[in-house]
Amino acid sequence: MSSKDRRELEALVREERTLTRRERLAAEASGEGRSTIYKVWLKICAIFRPVKLLGGVLLLLLSVLIWVSMLITGIDKAKNSFCKGRCGYILGHINIFQPINWVFTQSAKAFPVDYILMALLVLFFFSSSISGIATVGIRFLWVRIFQIRKGRTAPQALLVATVMLALIILAINYAIANMVAPQYSIFGTQTFCTAPTHNAGETPNCKGRPEYLVQCSEALDPEALKVCTPSIMTEFLNRIAITWPFFGALDFWAQFAFLGIFLVVFVTGLFRAPKLNVSELDEDAEEDEEEGLLASTGRRFGATWQDITGRTKSKSTYGTQEGNTGAGSSDV
Q1: Number of domains the chain contains
Q2: For residue 321, pLDDT beyond 60
Q3: Cα 7–13–17 angle (5° rounding)?
Q4: Does residue 255 sit in helix, strand or coil?
Q5: Helix or strand or coil: residue 208?
Q6: DSSP letter assigned to residue 320
Q7: Which H or E element spans position 140?
Q8: Does a structural domain hold residue 23?
């Protein structure tokens, strides 16, 4: 056989192994050789697949709503901030209707609906971040350094992913408090009475006069700030922005960079169909086979060594009847 024919034969053998491996993976995915419970679970997943699709569409609409809300807040801050870049674009009060902030301020009237919505929003941000890291992997620009794969993630990749998630949590805190729901995150549903008083130092009374009630904001007078109490997180972030204006401006404009990247990825995902990485599946299946062969080789080597030495693996039988019997026979 010539060298050319030998190379073609080896290529055909590799292709045959790949096709056999794919056939085995397809059979495993269809539940062949699995228990009845697993097959029932596959049928349930197939039945609820439309519900899963509907849930994905709803989450996509939620992402678009969050994007629009962040863009509105960013434009409002860039245009109407009373101190601009000197204090990190702190906004005195909301001038443009912001949907997410309105939902939270209205739901706060029915405790604890706002707490539940906020927990779901944070969970959505965090789970989306984890899903993105698992899909994209650990990269430097467009260069992939590590991959996040089930059962095959390198320890270095797990360490880097943990650090990235810690930094993402900080970014989520800033985004929610200053961009997603700024009014709710700072003062919630707190209001201040602006009714005129007859005497100096008299406490204003808005009982029966709701038109004098205004929501607490950063632009109120000092007397209002004695009544309105900001949240600890927003006060901490605002103090950083005022003390170090560079970091405040950097965080603010970084939100626009995030919005731009999201828009590009969103439009690209609408017109580009997802591709199945068949080569990665083949590599995973090949690694599974190699691990199985190594495990079986280790067992065969152990059995051969036991046949040569005439010994078996000793088991710890301390305090058992078998151990006592063995000790008695050795004495005899």
Answers
A1: 1
A2: no
A3: 145
A4: helix
A5: coil
A6: S
A7: strand 138-140
A8: no
245 within 8 A of 239, measured Cβ to Cβ = no
- In this structure, are strands 191-193 and 143-146 parallel, antiparallel, or unpaired? unpaired
Residue 86 in contact with residue 241, Cβ under 8 Å? no
**Cβ-based burial of 295 (10 A; exposed 0-12, middle 13-18, buried ≥19):** exposed
Task: Please state, as a whole number, how many other Cβ atoms lie within 10 Å of the Cβ of residue 231.
Answer: 14
Structure tokens at 211: 């038109």
Nearest to 45 by CA among 30, 65, 27, 63: 30
* Neighbour tally for 186: CB within 10 Å: 24
User: Does residue 185 form part of some domain?
Assistant: yes
pLDDT tens-digit map of 212-257 = 777 777 666 666 767 788 888 888 888 888 888 888 889 899 999 9
Q: What count of other Cβ atoms lies within 10 Å of the Cβ of residue 98?
A: 24
- Judge whether 294 lies within some domain: no
Helices (H), 48-144: 49-80, 99-107, 113-136
Angstrom distance (rounded) from CA 75 to CA 95: 10
Q: Tell me whether residue 129 is in a domain.
A: yes
pLDDT at 37: 83
- The pLDDT of residue 146 is above 70: yes
What's the domain range around 128? 48-190+229-274
Question: pTM for this one?
Answer: 0.73
**Token pair of 28, please?**
């495993």
Taking residue 27's Cβ as centre, other Cβ atoms within 10 Å add up to 12
Please give the structure tokens belonging to residue 205. 């009374």
Residue 179 to residue 72: CA distance in whole angstroms: 9
CA 167 to each of CA 170, 228, 245, 309, 323: distance values in angstroms, whole numbers, following the listed order: 5, 31, 20, 57, 56
- Give the 3-state secondary structure of residue 181: coil
From the list 99, 115, 95, 97, the residue with the least C-alpha distance to 107 is: 115
The residue type found at 99 is P
**CB-based burial label for 122 (10 Å; 0-12, 13-18, 19+):** middle
